[in-house]
Amino acid sequence: MPVTKITTKEFDQMVQAASVVLKNNAEFINSLNVFPVPDGDTGTNMSLSMESGAKYVSKSTDNTVGGKASALAKGLLMGARGNSGVILSQIFRGFSKDVEGKTTLNAHELANAVTAGAKTAYKSVMKPTEGTILTVVRYAANAGHHAAEETDDCARVMDAIKNGAQEALAKTPELLPVLKQVGVVDSGGQGLTFVFEAFADILNDREASTDVHEKFNVKANQMDQMVNEDHHESAQGQLNPEDIIYGYCTQMTVRFGKGKEVEKKFDYDTFYNYLAPLGDSLLVINDDEVAKVHIHTEHPGKVLTWGQKFGDLINIKIDNMRSQQEEIMENDEEIEHQPITDKKESPKEIAVISVVAGKGLEELFKSLGVTNIISGGQTMNPSTEDIVNAVNNSNAKKAIVLPNNKNIFLAAEQAESLTDIPMKVIHTKTIQQGLTAMFSFNPAASIEENQNEMDDSLDSVKSGQVTAAVRDTKINGLDIKKGSYMGIVDGKIEIIEDTLNDATISMLTKMLDEDSENVTIIFGEGATQSDADQIEAKAIEIDPELEVEIHEGDQPVYPLLISVE
After folding, report:
1. SS3 of 240, please?
2. Are residues 72 and 181 in the same domain?
3. CATH assignment of the domain containing 435
């Protein structure tokens, strides 16, 4: 049967399906990252970003697709991790803007929204690169546009969008030489293709394709999490209990076709439309067997009676929110009358917030003046929301953020417009650049002066990383075997050796020149003090006048980090 319009029911299912698909396939997407380095995180980033978007959609009580799309865009924005997650958020930002105010979507509106998403994504990237997720969304949008000229079936249009994405994905190795060299498709493009495939399968009411691991209908056990969100708690802030319009938070689960009062076969619109006038914060989530209901109402009896017309009731929960509010206010009064023992610290002028993974590195950055740490880095990029929260909770008037990873740049830049205080991003690509930037930080200077000085310092350091390859491949003429050690200088694989120390020494030799004065060695997981000592001895053998420092960083992925200044 043709799908001539997408309602909130279908949209909810599409989003939840995409979230599950990305989660199931995160490791596969990670494996497509070009470098044979064990920090491939595109799948993880996209999965966590979409998970945040799906959470916002499930919490939204808006009964329009435009409202649901806005919730998705907000959730993706706040949860965006890595470049891929940020671009995904931009696609659906454009999508949501285009469907703003629309109750449902027809085929033309669906195609136009995907086109708007593609345009927004391209605008969000300073230098768009073809052969990436951008190419995939552009091809998908064009395919959807052509399909919408021939049919009013949303399912067929979504299939065309999916097929366009798949076609573009297959072409990415031809458009981006490094992909062809390694023999993979673009990882971000693959993630987006999974999203569109999930959307298409939901609208076509079919089993999941062979590309995914599980069918992604929203099951009863997933509904519990959606319904038991804290969105209803907002009604209990500082309200006068008598100002609460709908006083009973009512929840129930209806088991279809069971019970003595059953009169009706479940139809989502019929079921929902009766309940909507009875209160607010209405949420109805269903599969083939049950529906879970959450509503704030003055008539919990009517809600329960209506549910019984479709099946028997389990997991009934009714809370008197006015009574709860009275208790909250009483507790607040008690707290207010308690003596104040601690004074809040005066705000710092400038907080310096650094993204770091590893206890030793955390201590090292703090010793240089970093005030706040965001845990993360190569294998777990912080989200935009993580960065916003760190800035807002820093107890400072202004903030500087050190990403220490180029894959965090876009998330950090998005955070700039969302924080409560002015924030600047120093575009540190590596841990070594982050440390160098801190030597240029001046607490007495303005945030703008610090930004200029810290940015200018980044070119003064060479960054070397050593790690083991996780697969066989060829890159830049180098034949890389799984288990061999790679020396990566400023993002480019330069050295391949059989042992950790051989790779590090070869890399260090390549990094040194006649102007080199200082070498810093940071050993982490997979390396020891003894390894670092051997590297130090070799550095001094090469140039006895070098100043060498050794630190224990405890960092994952890269056993040895080397900086040369």
Report:
1. coil
2. yes
3. 3.40.50.510
